[in-house]
Amino acid sequence: MRERSEFAQGYGPANLVALLRELRGYLRGLDLSHLSLQGAYLQGVEMQDASLAGATFRDTIFTEAFDAAWAVATSLNGQYWAAGSKRGEVRVWREAGRTLHLVWQAHTDTVSDLAFSPDDFRLASGSADGTITLWELERGTSLWTVGHTSSILSLAFTPDGRALASSSGNEATVRLWDAKTGTLLQTLPHSAPVFSVAWSPDGHLLASGSFDGGIRLWELQATQPTTCVAVLVGHTNVVQGLAFAPDGTRLASASWDQTVKLWDMESFGCLYTLEGHRGLVLRVVWSADGRTVASTGFDATIWLWDVEAGSYRAMLHGHSAPVHSLAFTPDSHRLLSGSDDGTLRVWDVAHGLCVRLVQGHEVRLYDVA
Question: 84 and 111 in contact (C-beta within 8 Å)?
């Protein structure tokens, strides 16, 4: 094959490599120099001492340098999945996670939260570097960048996509931004640093969870300033996760006090306190069908809760380090989780099984060239 031109080689070398991989289980020690490898899938394949001198690659996938995923998100229609890493990279997959669409260096520090716009055309990323950037998904180009004075902790689009709410680690405020221009619309004062924000499905209420364990509910009005209409008291430590039920009647909260609470949005009272985690609870998400709440945190487990019964349904084991992020797919059948162990896992919700593992090199990369 080497004696032929690059064009004449076609897919021949890649097909031969695929056959050798099936036959041997590895590609160690092979001389693949001066070959045209087009469409070769080499992820997770051992290639120690293989020669690639002078080889040409097109559409070839190697094992990725995949860092700990601190943020995951799915678009409203499930077409896009996204993950943000500890090194500031953002990855976006298409076709419900089957095809890697874009990878880019979005920030200079950990990507702490991600939020898809309701129209699925844009992705907002917040980072420990204090910046928020809005990205156009087709090409991964930046539309605008704004910031807080410290690490971004939480992002949430209004259901109509017109505004973006954000919170920061050292600021006792919530900021509302114009999603089209990045203009600051309002600053909402809090009693302590704000760790989480979430919008109700109708966009009339914004929930914010703070360092002092309190949850504030803000009413968004068309002509009047946003006002605080209630403060939910019950947690004894930081509230880092918030999620409204799809019908807006309940709110789930996750706290460093190792509990998850479900709140009634009519009486503003606590319906259930869900206990079981053995560490700080960092994230809580609600399935689109409204039947399941998932929570996770420092104990490396993911808990699934039956919200009607207010009880435990399943505990998912697999991660070996704190889990920082969760996202249900729109059909409620799959759950994505990102962890400090350097893996992104996809779970079958009904059976409580990990059905896919996305990983690459070990987390600690010191040098590449």
Answer: yes
Query: How far apart are the C-alpha atoms of 222 and 13, rounded to whole Å?
Result: 62
Compute CA distances 209 → 25, 214, 283, whole Å.
50, 6, 12
Q: What radius of gyration, in Å, describes the C-alpha atoms of the chain?
A: 23
Give the β-pairing of 36-38 and 56-58: parallel
Average pLDDT, the chain: 91
Give the Cβ contact number of residue 22 at 10 Å.
Answer: 8
CB 18 within 8 A of CB 38: no
**DSSP-assigned letter for residue 368:** -
Tokens 């409203």 correspond to what residue? Answer: 76
Residue entry with tokens 């009519």:
266
Tell me, yes or no, if the pTM score tops 0.70. Answer: yes
136-149 average pLDDT score: 92
Q: How many helices (H) and strands (E) does the chain have?
A: 2, 30
Residue 232 is encoded by which pair of tokens? Answer: 């939910």
* φ and ψ at residue 341, rounded to 5 degrees: -80, 5
Residues in Cβ contact with 76 at an 8 Å cutoff, skipping those fewer than 6 apart: 116, 118, 120, 330
pLDDT of 270 > 70? The answer is: yes
Find the mean pLDDT for residues 294-301. Answer: 95
Q: Could you read off the pLDDT of 13-22 as tens digits, one per residue?
A: 999 999 999 9
Q: Domain 69-358: state its class.
A: mainly beta
Which alpha helices (H) appear in the chain, and where do they start and end? 6-9, 12-24
CA angle (216, 175, 191) in 5-degree steps = 40
Q: How many angstroms separate the CA atoms of 42 and 21, rounded?
A: 9
Instruction: Please state, in angstroms and rounded to a whole number, the distance separating the CA atoms of residues 23 and 1.
Output: 20
Bridge partners, 39 (sequence order): none
pLDDT of residue 368: 42
